[in-house]
# Entry
Amino acid sequence: MEIYLDNAATTKVCDEAADAALAMMTKAYGNPSSTHAKGREAKKALDLARAQVADALGCTPAELVFTSCGSEADNWAIIRGAESARRRGGHIISSTVEHDAVRKSLDALEKQGFEVTRLSPGADGSLSAGNVLAVLRPDTVLVSLMMVNNETGAVTDIADIFRKVKDTGSHTLLHTDAVQGFLKVPFSAKTLGADMISLSGHKIHAPKGIGALYIRDGLKIAPYLMGGGQEEGRRAGTEAIPLIAAFGAAAAAGKAQFPKSAAHMASLRGKTLSRLKAEIPGLTAAAGGAPHILSVSLPGYRSEVLMNYLEARGIFVSKSSACKKGGRSHVLEAMGLPPRVIDGTIRIGFSRFTTEDEVREFCGALRQASETLAHT
# Structure
């Protein structure tokens, strides 16, 4: 028996997405840029998928460009966004708890001469409008903040921040990495106020290798990949139609089930935390409002040892971002947590497919680990 509780790292592909991908690989396999019937068939599937993801995001299809992943979308938005606005200044605002796709893009811009202010989060791991407004300057050209933290589930009120930045009269570009927020917490591109939004398919039960970047209508930023004229000239490369069709199908299914699935995940998160606190003395939890992520710590234990104990029983969790191989979590360090807490932290990720039986098995196994394993 396998119990998969690492859904913040990736999700299993849902039937709707798998069926869509298979159909594109075996039947409608044409190149969407070809003008013959097979090409037109693929182009129709491309347009449908774009409309499905756009509908789930709350934008027009023309504002959505498909990418290879969320990291590419982050790189493109941040690097090309900042470069496009450089004539107005060279200051950027972000935070110390961003995903590495954002952090390393900012590092690259600093080497080009940009100045980056990295804000520290509050005790709950989120950022506030007050944090941002305190460092906003006339030469600020980009604000990039994560909507839902991938390690703790902390939710930043992006809509409030972006609205208040715009109220100052600032013309800075506004970007959010919404990879962990899309179809997990309620928001719409129309009401969020962002100029650019990064998405990823494999967090919502589509396959790995597909993402998207929302670019507000009227905003012009240079392509990140150059070559052919695909995606209306905004991103070169033959579109990965099987992955794109799967992304569209997963987004449509996710939107249809969103209220129910969000409530289901939130319920599982609450029940898990309540039981763990009741049964494991000393267990702590990082604050976080997203329904699908729970970060807990057994101070004095080692997260790797806990993970190995659980894996031996067919239960899969993680200790931080799956993209961060080794090293202590920069997110938990930025939140000011003690080393003993950080080193004993594991992340549990729920999905709409997670069951209460699986949660009960996990809670029992972690309690057994706390009673069996040595700690300092």
